[in-house]
Write a structure and sequence with these properties.
Blueprint (H helix, E strand, L loop, with lengths): L1 H14 L3 H4 L15 H13 L10 E9 L2 E16 L2 E7 L8 E8 L1 H5 L10 E2 L1 H5 L10 H10 L4 E6 L4 E2 L2 E2 L9 E2 L5 E2 L6 H9 L3 H7 L25 E2 L10
Antiparallel strand pairs: 1-2, 2-3, 3-4, 4-6, 5-6, 6-9, 7-8, 10-11
Length: 256
């Protein structure tokens, strides 16, 4: 994975154009509160010069996907991930509701390899959602990089899993977000069948970011050969208000 990230970094440097410069996705809600005072702005400027932000370095991989909440599947969010690959088996991501400077941080996701997932205690596995459906459907994307690099990145994430908590309902399709993070954090899941995403959710993202999800799905068809049955694929099967159909190559490891 590290060589993929190095390649992406080199591409970004050569192009000198970040993904957000071409296509922006602003948040739909802002936090309640008074505007920053002059004193706060001065303190921020001083902190920027004098303090280190070392833990934030390395969050260089930008992904966009979708999350239904496991206990409330019709609560679905577009999630902008900024990820740091710590080693070949583990990445950590900060989640936002957009990719602009005023985007709201609304969650976190940890990503682990199939090998790491197999080491988890059985009771822990219920918190980790499978990724093959997101990849093979074309819904998970890495905006702004060449398609060949994006596909190579997706190949490294085949059969991986994510543990995602959303801490703020900043809005989802057809619903206005809340002005502050309220209530308990919600465990998020993944889409594993066609039709699970609410109508318009994927299309809105595609329009804003200039993405063709259907084309990506066709281009990734050869990745099906790498797909193994995964835990949790059928966790939400039948819990949506719409008919759903299987995504080719996406199967549950517990299926008979």
């Amino acid at each position: 994975m590290k060589h993929i990230i190095a390649t992406l970094g080199a591409l970004a440097g050569a192009l000198s154009v970040p993904a957000v410069a071409q296509h922006s996705s602003p948040p739909s809600v802002g936090p309640a509160g008074a505007p920053k005072s002059a004193q706060t702005q001065v303190l921020e400027a001083g902190a920027k010069v004098l303090q280190s932000a070392a833990p934030m370095r390395g969050f260089d991989v930008y992904l966009v996907g979708f999350h239904p909440m496991k206990d409330a599947p019709e609560l679905q969010m577009e999630a902008h991930h900024y990820c740091h690959q710590r080693n070949e088996d583990f990445a950590q991501c900060i989640l936002f509701d957009g990719n602009t400077a005023d985007a709201n941080m609304n969650g976190i996701e940890y990503i682990i390899s199939e090998k790491a997932f197999q080491l988890l205690p059985p009771d822990e596995r219920k918190y980790w959602h499978p990724h093959n459906g997101e990849i093979l459907s074309g819904q998970l994307v890495a905006p702004g990089i060449p398609e060949v690099a994006e596909k190579a990145l997706m190949k490294t994430k085949m059969n991986s899993y994510g543990k995602t908590w959303h801490t703020w309902n900043t809005g989802h399709e057809g619903h206005t977000g809340e002005a502050l993070p309220l209530g308990e954090a919600k465990l998020a899941w993944s889409f594993n069948r066609d039709g699970e995403a609410m109508p318009g959710l994927v299309q809105k993202r595609d329009r804003q970011l200039g993405i063709d999800t259907a084309a990506k799905r066709r281009d990734r068809a050869d990745l099906r050969a790498l797909a193994k049955p995964q835990s949790g694929v059928d966790a939400l099967n039948g819990k949506f208000a719409r008919p759903t159909t299987p995504i080719p190559g996406v199967t549950d490891s517990a299926a008979k």
